[in-house]
């Protein structure tokens, strides 16, 4: 089979690899679509993503969907030909967690993830013509959800997890700072969950246009003199830029809540955080998801349209070009997709 394999910084190859064989309790997926994520571009650009360093070639990709090609021994309740996506996480060890964290498996450590170099050997992703996965990782797509859109259930699950961190949004005004793919999906998830008014802010007009198509009621371009609204009770920070934190905290209402869904750097940074104390803001993190990928699939079945997010499509053989487009701010890209099979 063909696979998009990163060998080092700026070294992406379409390699020929052995077809995987599903083991007991596993399913073989003929992958049709993959969505490029920030971790994929980071491995390609830097040979690392966060603290995870490439030590060996790695098949990229954790946002995938396709059809079941073969069932391993002992698998029931699934059938060949079904359209599916995959929950990309695997808990390593006994899976036991402290009582205070029961059910929050996204915080379990250690955990393997598709397309990640966090472990040695690395965990290959799904930018390949075939990928096997445990049957419990499989999420069947309803007829209303194409495999192209189903590949985005994973990042939409991230957005639903972030929205779920603050409880009910019914009737509330929400600010989403950062209108990249995750920010725009947070806009869509917040709208789906009943937010009354959603304001999206970014430094790119093209990103803001996508956020509007995803459900934003108003947009603010802070690079061209736009100012963030004031006294917003619920704010989602999706840019991951430390420089944005001061203005975002100032936009958050006294006693309000700021959800940090954009990944912040792991190194020391300068940020203006005084309002966190004086305004008694609740600042909470949001990391991946538990099983909100299932909520994402149901939302797409019910009409949540991720189509506006998709700006570019490439064939698997063009994966290097696709990654460069995803990295290029001038490309106007949001979600760049690979058509794999």
Automatic annotation (TrEMBL):
The keyword Coiled coil does not apply. Residues 8-338 form the Enoyl reductase (ER) domain. Its cofactor is Zn(2+). GO terms for molecular function: oxidoreductase activity; zinc ion binding. Pfam families: ADH_N (PF08240), ADH_zinc_N (PF00107). SMART domains: PKS_ER. CDD domains: idonate-5-DH (cd08232). InterPro entries: ADH-like_C, ADH-like_N, ADH_Zn_CS, ER, GroES-like_sf, NAD(P)-bd_dom_sf. Keywords: Metal-binding, Oxidoreductase, Zinc. The keyword Lyase does not apply. Belongs to the zinc-containing alcohol dehydrogenase family. This is L-idonate 5-dehydrogenase.
């Amino acid at each position: 089979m063909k696979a998009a394999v990163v060998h080092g910084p700026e070294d992406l190859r379409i390699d020929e690899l052995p077809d995987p064989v599903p083991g007991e309790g596993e399913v073989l997926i003929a992958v049709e679509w993959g969505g490029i994520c920030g971790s994929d571009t980071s491995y390609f650009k830097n040979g690392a993503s966060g603290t995870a360093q490439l030590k060996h070639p790695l098949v990229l990709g954790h946002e995938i969907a396709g059809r079941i090609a073969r069932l391993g021994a002992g698998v029931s309740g699934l059938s060949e030909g079904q359209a599916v996506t995959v929950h990309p996480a695997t808990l390593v060890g006994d899976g036991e967690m402290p009582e205070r964290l029961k059910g929050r498996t996204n915080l379990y450590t250690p955990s393997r993830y598709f397309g990640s170099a966090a472990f040695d050997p690395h965990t290959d992703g799904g930018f390949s013509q075939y990928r096997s996965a445990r049957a419990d990782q499989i999420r069947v797509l309803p007829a209303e959800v194409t495999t192209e859109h189903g590949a985005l259930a994973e990042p939409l699950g991230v957005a639903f997890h972030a929205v779920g961190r603050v409880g009910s949004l019914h009737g509330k005004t929400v600010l989403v700072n950062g209108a990249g793919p995750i920010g725009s999906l947070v806009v869509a998830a917040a709208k789906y969950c009943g937010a009354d008014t959603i304001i999206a802010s970014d430094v790119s007009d093209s990103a803001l246009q996508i956020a509007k198509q995803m459900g934003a009621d108003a947009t603010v371009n802070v690079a061209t003199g736009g100012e963030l609204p004031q006294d917003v009770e619920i704010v989602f920070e999706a840019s991951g830029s430390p420089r944005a934190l001061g203005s975002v905290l100032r936009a958050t209402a006294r006693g309000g809540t700021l959800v940090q869904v954009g990944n912040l750097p792991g190194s020391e940074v300068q940020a203006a955080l005084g309002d966190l104390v004086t305004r008694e803001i609740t600042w909470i993190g949001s990391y991946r998801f538990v099983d909100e990928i299932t909520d994402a699939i149901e939302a797409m079945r019910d009409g949540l349209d991720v189509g506006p997010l998709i700006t570019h499509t490439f064939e698997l053989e063009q994966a290097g070009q696709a990654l460069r487009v995803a990295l290029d701010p001038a490309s106007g890209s949001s979600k760049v997709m690979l058509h794999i099979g």
